[in-house]
Amino acid sequence: MKGIVFTEFLDLVEKKFGIEMVDSIIENSKLASGGVYTSIGTYSFSEMLQLLQHLSSKSGISIDNLLLIYGEHFFSVVEKSYPGLLATYKDPIEMLSSIENHIHVEVRKIYPDAELPTFIVEEKKINSLIMVYKSSRSMHHFGLGLMNKTFEHFKSSAEIVLEKIKEDGTEVRFIINKN
């Protein structure tokens, strides 16, 4: 997992919960990195899981809700760092349906060894989209947070329903209906 995911996560934890919480979740985890991350480094997903688990137990917020909050935060990173990418789209459905064939292609140019989830578009209409998320990691709520902010970015809203295809969350169907 790319280091930017860790550095931004710890930045969010500091902003929302304070530096003491950052120290606590790092100290309570058994991290090969020692909790020291660079945005271009690559780190084990197990480290993110440990940080999430400790934050969840200390904050009382479920891991899924933490991932949702983090996904929403991460969208602001994309807005700031890659405004040109967002400017190529005029509609949230158009943008979300191009994750696999455009956005992930651009991400791989910056982070060639990034392990990205797969998004398969099953059905696309003007105001709706059905796509399947597949990943070795259960981070679909991170994706949901990004989707929520995508609609907000385009001054729109949507009802997004998750259907777990695999109980462990590594395969999830997103049913998106634009309001």
TrEMBL record:
One GO MF term: heme binding
Location of the Heme NO-binding domain: 2-160
Highest taxon, organism lineage: Bacteria
SUPFAM superfamilies documented for this protein: Ligand-binding domain in the NO signalling and Golgi transport
Xref: PANTHER family: GUANYLATE CYCLASE SOLUBLE SUBUNIT BETA-2 (PTHR45655), SOLUBLE GUANYLATE CYCLASE GCY-32-RELATED (PTHR45655:SF13)
Protein name: Heme NO-binding domain-containing protein
